[in-house]
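Protein: Xylose activator XylR (AraC family)
Species: Collimonas arenae
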Amino acid sequence: MTKIPAVHRIALLFNGNKIFDRDIIAGIGEYLSSTRASWDLFLEEDFRCRLQGIERWQGHGIIADFDDPAACEALARVSLPVVAVGGSYADESDYPPDTPYVATDNFKLVKLAYDHLIEAGLRRFACFSLPEATVNRWAQEREKAFTTLMQRDGMQGEIYRGVGTSAPSWDTAVEQQIAWLQTLPKPVGIIAVSDARARQLLQACLCAGIAVPEQVALIGIDNDPLARILTRVPLSSVIQGTREMGRSAAHLLHQMLHGARLAGTRILVPPAGINVLASSRHEALNHPHVMQAMHFIRQYACQGIKTEQVADYVGVSRSSLEWYFRRELGRSVHDEILRFKLDAAKRMLANHQDNQDNQPDDKQEARSIAEIAVSCGFTSVQYMHAVFKRELACTPREYQDRMTAAKHTDDTDNTEKNHTI
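Structure follows.
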């Protein structure tokens, strides 16, 4: 007779309102679904992390976000097995002693962003961080990584922290960001320590009329879908290996629950990749009219703008603007508008497929593709079909199927990898 695994009561102490913490929790869930571990999970209903009285919690183990110094302090009094999750540190002594620790590799996160900006042809760099505070230790570690890379390559990168954001200080914060941006030599590549920070800076660029990515190429860290939705210019971002971190943390705790002694164990998880979108696709443009036009197109292409509207914004004739585009980019203004609309449609189709039911009906599918065509500025769903066939040799539905197949392959690979941790 098959023995039923013992049920362990496990507390997950995370702030699920943050993308980093949510993905860690998802990774823990993936581990549980792919093993025989049987856990009864405690997680606050509103996803906030409340630590009061945690030392009296009658459970078997805890996985917690140790980027929060309050969690470190509260769990120092707990006798249960604890696995810490958080950012990596340049100084080994900053890690909690005697606690297994799974870390996102802050140096590799920043290096991946930096390498991407170099490949885009940039030679000047800056970092947009957060005010120094104990709760922002991960941001300061990313600053250190940025400084190390600048020193290694003999460059003078600038770090700007600004102020913490709140409703009363928002206007002042944006004004200060604009003032800082205007002091930077252009073009410049800026690495923001998070997508939330990158989104603020992107908004400041748009308010000040600073072309992104021609003058400022911007990349964040987190690959937060909410940040992408809230920006006119799609935001490039480094994808953290957070789900792998969650799986690793769950595996460590699972071992500890069965008697393994893992004090001092440390696992550094590298980034999973980079999502390159418009905000960092820097092209070296010399003519100011082309830069202005590109700035306008990136913001309004999906609203169905025409070449004449772009020329009016720049303040030149259509024929002059077309000549500038052909000389600088080798393509027409219309081609650039269409290219941006196609990229937007591809993103929306892939995201929509992820959110679909497993077997959507044909009417729902047709309606959703038509809605995406309208959202991306195509005059009709038939025109979007024609563009997809011409540029990608497939229909929008076939493109969705490709993305789904690729996602399933990635999920299978992750599951197989999880069994070998």
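Remarks: The CA atoms of residues 297 and 337 lie 6 Å apart.
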